[in-house]
Amino acid sequence: MSTVVVRYTLRPEAMSEHLRLIDAVMTQLSEERRDTVDYRVLRLSDGVTFIHMSTCDTPDGTSPLRELSAFREFQADLGSRVATRPEPSSADEIGNYVGLPA
Q1: How far apart (Å, rounded) are the C-alpha atoms in residues 46 and 50?
Q2: Angstrom distance (rounded) from CA 65 to CA 56
Q3: How confident is the model over 12-64, as pLDDT tens digits?
Q4: What is the rounded distance in angstroms from the CA atom of residue 38 to the CA atom of residue 56?
Q5: What angle in degrees, to the nearest 10, is found between the helix axes of 69-76 and 15-32?
Q6: CATH T-level assignment (fold) for domain 2-91
Q7: How far apart are CA 87 and CA 78, in angstroms?
Q8: Cα 68 vs. chain centroid, distance in angstroms?
Q9: Spans of all domains in the chain
């Protein structure tokens, strides 16, 4: 399994479009019932900083997110929506407890 964490700050004027694109990714994941990826997006309390966490379990370690048309659309114009460049980092999962229903 591989985990990637990405952090960036969004331009406030791009918020509605950005949230629409994230929602489209989540909708496509739900509709296609992708079981090789866990994907979470958090918005911090400042309202403009986002953290994406993706864990995938694929034979070659590549993320199935890249296969999604909604994710490709999300990434297509990301540079115009962000105030700071996305900072990706690989991560090691130390623990994971999911007690709440999805």
Answers
A1: 10
A2: 9
A3: 999 999 999 999 999 999 999 878 889 999 999 999 999 999 988 888 878 88
A4: 6
A5: 160
A6: Alpha-Beta Plaits (3.30.70)
A7: 13
A8: 12
A9: 2-91
- Can you give the pLDDT at residue 102? 61
Angle (CA) 99-96-6 rounded to 5° is 115
Nearest-angstrom CA–CA distance, 74 and 67: 12
One-letter amino acid at 15 equals M
Rg of the chain taking only CA atoms, in angstroms = 14
Tell me the C-alpha distance between 74 and 70, whole Å.
Answer: 6
Which of 76, 82, 2 has the alpha carbon at shortest distance from 50?
82
What is the SS3 string spanning the chain? CEEEEEEEEECHHHHHHHHHHHHHHHHHHHHHCCCCEEEEEEECCCCCEEEEEEEECCCCCCCHHHHCHHHHHHHHCHHHHECCCCEEEEECCCCCCCCCCC
Two tokens at 30?
A: 């739900």
